[in-house]
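User: Can you help me understand a structure? I only have the sequence.
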Amino acid sequence: MPTQLTLFLGGLQSHTKLMLDASAGGNIKWKTLEEAHEMIENMASNDNEMQNERATSHNKGGMLELQS
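Assistant: Let's start by predicting it. Here is the structure, written out as tokens:
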């Protein structure tokens, strides 16, 4: 496994590593560098989209209005 991926994975918290492994269908270390990079990019992109959606939700009268 390339050093860059090893260092990246070593800096993650255990629950984040578990999510990556689950997304990889086993162990992310079994993926090629390109597959691992794409998977991590997709997860980061999805997380950013969810945070943006939460930030743009409006709170009216004690109720949270969610976008569909």
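Now, to help you interpret it: Residues 19 and 29 are 13 Å apart (CA to CA). The radius of gyration is 16 Å. Let me know which part you'd like to focus on.
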